[in-house]
């Protein structure tokens, strides 16, 4: 027990000791923690005190610095004020000294003049014999001078009178802008205006030559420019065979020796025309045209200032004063008038010199543009000659030896007239291009003959052959084809400039009316008008609901040909650039020019703040020096390429930035890898440069297209409002004149309206009456009477193409002009002959391709409906036991195949259509070869007969299709019009074509509605 108690006591003591130790340790840790916390707090306070002390010192130092700067600024301002004050004081002192000196000199001059007057007065005493003789001689000279002056005023007139006569013509910058183009052109071409302008400019030329001081050099020689303004030698037509001869006059022989006038009246008047109507004179706004407009503006401004100086100069600076017998003494009225005359004369001379300087600049730009215009005119003449040749070969059916087949009297007359017309064209080409132009024309004619006979020998389709041959006619280096006529690359010469400078015009102008009238067969090939601008086409496409690049497949043939030509020319250009960079002596001019184009394109798209940066990073001078040194520094070109691609990414939309970055990095990686593989050889440099530049140019092209699309989308709401209609109306007025005289300029439109007036009411009454029988059309309609099989179209084939609540274009309200336009367009597209541009009214020239497409749709509907009828007729006749399901399947297969074929191919022959009919007819059932052959013959016979214009089937099918088009055109494309069109097509079993008819007729509704809004004033005057 004792042991246990001791053990227990020991345990309790140990526990107490352990507890005491733990308490001491906890107390120690608590003291340590408090110490550390106190230390951290003290350090933080210390750090904050140091930081605030530093801030206070920095603030005090900053205040001292600002005070020193302010004091220095005030001292500098004080020094500047002192310097300015000293300068003003010195300047005023100098002015004071100069005024004093001037007053002293003026006083001495007046004193000397008074002394001289007194001396002359004393010398010319009345008692002197010399004084008496001088008085008599002075009277004689005065009378003689007055007589010469009166004769001069009567015969040649003074400068003031000539200037006043020109001013009375009312041809100035303010009056030509609101004046219609036709009125301005007629005014400028009138003999009175030309004679008045020529007399005034001749006087200005003589005054300018006389105003030149004898010590100075002669005025600027511009004879090399003036000879381009000279009119061609007059050629007089003889009475035999249309041959030309030059009248051998003395002036003609000495025309090269005679001095050309320095100021051409026609060029001055043309400057007013350019300033007032640049959109009419120019068919494109290139760099040359912009420079010409600026120089014309400057020249007209100086010319009008010169006229104002003449008219406002007290008549003293511009006409010869009669000599004064009185002594002009200082202070008298005659003396002050003489001083004003001298001042006005100086002002006139300085203004005349300014006008001459502006005239020289304008003449240079005008001649450059006129040479380009003459080249384009020569190309048009060559194209006209090629078209005449092609028309004659087709009409006369010439053989490869050049001999015609069965040439009758009419064909002989046509051939003779074509030869005469081509001689006229050759003479005009000789005027423009000399013998070189004749050689180009002969080459084009021989080329078109060889192509024509080659195509004839290969038995190619005629339509395709004509297009291919027309595209091969070229003059120089530019193709002369129908594409250019359709305004894809329009650079026709200006009619106004041709009339002003008497240059020969192509057969499309009015001066070849005798050619066109004497040979009506070639009129459609020779008549052409100035096509619409690209902006007009874009606005027109937007108003019709789509842009030109997605315009319902209109003009796809021209577009495809142009794309091929562009690809070929692009490939040839890059091949030429590659060849220029290879060899021992590479030519880097093309490379520098391409880099310049890239820089200019970036400069054009960049904002103002980035332009200097672009110019500094793409330095053409440094690039030229690097290339000319012979070191093909691929690294420097790579830097330019990298910078150009970076700028392109900045200009592009954010959505395309990542994709462009990947493409750019991929290109740069390929170029680096290719350079390493070829060990930096010469071919490596050429390939890398061409690949990089070509990629950059393509990216620039895509970016410009994207910017253009964005701009069009921004303008689209404005154009679809009243802005687009007003723009087209103004462009139409500029081209054809004001609505007050429409019958002169709108001959085709007036003829079309007069023809349509007679049938408008008949067509409208038939359309209105057709609604009264509309409920009965829900039942099956009888087939065409000539289909004698006795079968009808089943009820299941009635229309299900429209909904009861379908929305579409509005119907005709019965208003007079609306009815006339819709029915008139319907008459145009329902014609059998293919629609040509020359036969389309002027108000629809912009939409003639669209109307031709609708006419094609109209004819396709007739062909498809006739094919369905013929197939049904033959199947029911040959296989009388055919079940309705097989008949319906065969009809559906034929419909689907024909629509796909006609939609994808523009030229489908009847053999191809019959082949499709036979294949769809024999696919539904297995028949013997004899039955199949019999079916083929029957299909061919009935189908070809049904497509003849005098056949009853064709007449009734075309009439039903016409009624369907009329139902949509007048009744709108809603449910009402569709139901009426469906009723018309159900008579021939072609209700499947209702959607096709609706889509084509909607184009007519839009065209009529937009034309009514744009050309309404002209229609009102014609009605």
TrEMBL record:
GO biological process terms, semicolon-separated: signal transduction
Pfam families, A to Z: Tcp11
Biased composition range(s): Basic and acidic residues: 94-105
Polar residues: bias regions: 79-93, 486-520
Record region (Disordered): 79-105, 237-257, 484-520
Family annotation (InterPro entries): Tcp11
Entry's family note: Belongs to the TCP11 family.
PANTHER family: OS02G0556700 PROTEIN (PTHR12832:SF31), TESTIS-SPECIFIC PROTEIN PBS13 T-COMPLEX 11 (PTHR12832)
Name of the featured protein: T-complex protein 11
């Amino acid at each position: 027990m004792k042991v246990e108690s001791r053990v227990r006591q020991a345990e309790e003591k140990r526990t107490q000791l352990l507890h005491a130790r733990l308490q001491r340790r906890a107390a120690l840790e608590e003291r340590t923690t408090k110490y550390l916390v106190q230390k951290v707090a003290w350090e933080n306070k210390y750090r904050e005190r140091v930081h605030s002390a530093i801030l206070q010192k920095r603030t005090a130092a900053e205040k001292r610095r600002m005070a020193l700067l302010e004091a220095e600024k005030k001292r500098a301002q004080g020094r500047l004020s002192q310097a300015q004050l000293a300068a003003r004081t010195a300047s005023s002192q100098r002015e004071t000294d100069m005024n004093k000196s001037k007053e002293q000199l003026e006083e001495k001059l007046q004193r000397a003049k008074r002394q001289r007057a007194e001396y002359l007065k004393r010398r010319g005493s009345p008692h002197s014999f010399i004084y008496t003789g001088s008085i008599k001689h002075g009277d004689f000279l005065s009378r003689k001078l007055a007589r010469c002056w009166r004769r001069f005023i009567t015969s040649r007139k003074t400068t003031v009178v000539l200037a006043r006569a020109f001013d009375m013509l009312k041809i100035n910058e303010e009056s030509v802008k609101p004046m219609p183009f036709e009125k301005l052109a007629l005014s400028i071409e009138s003999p009175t205006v030309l004679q008045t302008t020529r007399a005034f400019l001749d006087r200005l030329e003589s005054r300018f030559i006389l105003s030149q001081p004898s010590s100075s050099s002669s005025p600027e020689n511009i004879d090399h420019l003036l000879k381009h303004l000279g009119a061609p030698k007059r050629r007089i037509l003889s009475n035999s065979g249309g041959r030309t001869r030059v009248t051998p006059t003395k002036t003609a022989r000495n025309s090269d020796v005679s001095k050309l006038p320095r100021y051409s009246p026609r060029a001055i008047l043309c400057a007013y025309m350019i300033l007032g109507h640049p959109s009419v004179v120019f068919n494109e706004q290139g760099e040359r045209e912009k420079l010409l407009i600026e120089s014309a503006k400057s020249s007209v401004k100086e010319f009008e200032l010169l006229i104002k100086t003449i008219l406002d100069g007290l008549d003293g600076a511009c006409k010869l004063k009669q000599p004064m017998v009185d002594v002009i003494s200082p202070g008298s009225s005659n003396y002050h008038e003489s001083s004003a005359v001298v001042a006005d004369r100086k002002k006139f001379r300085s203004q005349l010199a300014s006008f001459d300087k502006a005239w020289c600049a304008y003449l240079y730009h005008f001649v450059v543009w006129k040479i380009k215009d003459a080249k384009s005119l020569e190309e048009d003449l060559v194209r006209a000659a090629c078209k005449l040749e092609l028309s004659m070969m087709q009409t006369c059916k010439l053989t490869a030896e050049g001999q015609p087949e069965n040439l009758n009297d009419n064909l002989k007359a046509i051939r003779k007239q074509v030869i005469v017309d081509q001689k006229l064209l050759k003479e005009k080409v000789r005027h423009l291009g000399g013998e070189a132009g004749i050689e180009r024309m002969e080459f084009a004619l021989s080329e078109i003959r060889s192509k024509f006979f080659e195509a004839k020998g290969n038995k190619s389709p005629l339509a395709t052959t004509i297009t291919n041959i027309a595209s091969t006619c070229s003059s120089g280096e530019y193709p002369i084809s129908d594409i250019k006529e359709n305004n894809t690359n329009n650079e026709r010469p200006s009619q106004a400039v041709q009339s002003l400078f008497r240059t020969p015009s192509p057969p499309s102008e009015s001066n070849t009316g005798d050619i066109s009238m004497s040979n009506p067969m070639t009129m459609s090939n020779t008549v052409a008008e100035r096509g619409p601008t690209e902006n007009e086409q874009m606005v027109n496409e937007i108003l019709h609901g789509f842009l030109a690049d997605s315009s319902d497949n209109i003009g796809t043939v021209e577009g495809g040909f142009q794309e091929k030509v562009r690809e070929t020319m692009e490939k040839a250009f890059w091949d030429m650039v590659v060849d220029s960079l290879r060899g021992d002596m590479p030519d880097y001019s093309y490379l520098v020019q391409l880099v310049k184009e890239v820089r200019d394109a970036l400069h054009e798209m960049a904002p103002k703040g980035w332009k200097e940066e672009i110019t500094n990073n793409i330095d053409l001078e440094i690039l030229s020096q690097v290339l000319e040194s012979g070191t093909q520094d691929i690294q420097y070109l790579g830097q330019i390429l990298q910078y150009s691609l970076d700028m392109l990414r900045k200009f592009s939309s954010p959505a395309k930035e990542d994709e462009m970055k990947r493409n750019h990095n991929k290109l740069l990686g390929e170029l680096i890898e290719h350079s390493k593989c070829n060990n930096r050889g010469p071919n490596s440099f050429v390939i890398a440069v061409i690949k990089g530049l070509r990629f950059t140019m393509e990216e620039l092209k895509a970016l410009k297209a994207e910017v253009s699309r964005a701009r069009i989308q921004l303008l689209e709401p404005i154009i679809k409002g009243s802005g687009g209609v007003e723009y087209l109306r103004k462009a139409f007025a500029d081209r054809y004149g004001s609505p007050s005289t429409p019958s002169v300029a709108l001959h085709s439109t007036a003829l079309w309206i007069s023809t349509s007036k007679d049938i408008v009411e008949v067509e409208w009454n038939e359309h209105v009456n057709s609604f009264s029988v509309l409920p009965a059309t829900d039942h099956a309609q009888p087939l065409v009477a000539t289909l004698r099989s006795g079968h009808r179209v089943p009820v299941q084939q009635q229309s299900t193409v429209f909904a009861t609540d379908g929305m579409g274009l509005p119907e005709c309200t019965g208003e007079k002009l609306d009815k006339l336009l819709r029915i008139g367009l319907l008459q145009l597209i329902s014609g059998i002959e293919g629609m040509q541009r020359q036969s389309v009214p002027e108000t629809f020239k912009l939409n003639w391709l669209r109307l031709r497409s609708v006419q094609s749709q109209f004819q396709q509907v007739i062909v498809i409906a006739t094919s369905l009828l013929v197939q049904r007729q033959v199947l029911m006749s040959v296989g009388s036991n055919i079940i309705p399901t097989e008949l319906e399947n065969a009809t559906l297969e034929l419909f689907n195949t024909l629509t796909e074929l006609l939609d994808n191919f523009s030229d489908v022959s009847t053999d191809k259509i019959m082949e499709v009919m036979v294949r769809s007819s024999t696919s539904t059932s297995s028949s013997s070869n004899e039955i199949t052959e019999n079916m083929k013959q029957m299909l061919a016979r009935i189908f070809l007969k049904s497509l003849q214009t005098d056949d009853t089937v064709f007449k009734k099918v075309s009439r039903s299709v016409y009624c369907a088009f009329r139902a949509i055109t007048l009744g709108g494309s809603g449910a009402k019009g569709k139901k009426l069109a469906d009723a018309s097509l159900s008579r021939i079993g072609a209700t499947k074509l209702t959607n096709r008819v609706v889509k084509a007729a909607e184009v007519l509704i839009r065209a009529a509605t937009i034309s009514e809004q744009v050309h309404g004033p002209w229609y009102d005057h014609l009605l």
